[in-house]
Design a protein that fits this description.
- There is one protein chain.
- 30% of the residues lie in helices and 25% in strands.
- By secondary structure, the chain is α+β, with helices and mostly antiparallel strands.
Length: 138
Amino acid sequence: MSQRTVLSLFEEYSNLIPRDIENGKVLSLSVTKDYNRIIATIAFDKLVAFDVIEAFEQDIARAMSVKDFKVLVRYNPSLFSDSYFNDIIKFLRRCFPIVNGFLDDAEATYENDVLRINLKNGGYTVLKHAGIDNALPE
């Protein structure tokens, strides 16, 4: 598939595509045999709030009459900052339900390409065992 924007690929549903998402580059699209699940890997040139992505997923799933439509986001690493930490937690909760609670009130700092998370509610061993420490690509 040649690289297309979200807007050009889903132009039939343009009224459902938020401005923050419309110029994202669709890197891949996976569809299950029964056409009930679609996973779109989309690269963005700016950070997009989790709530915007989630609303888009739900709107497109309803419009396409599919059970599940998920977006796997890809960003240029230079965009990463600790100010995006709350959205990162939301993305992690979706993949790792065990995150719920352990990262509440946690503080994050990002320096020299290292994200440090200060847990306020314990759970380091549980989170490490679940593989959270490897969930964010380098």
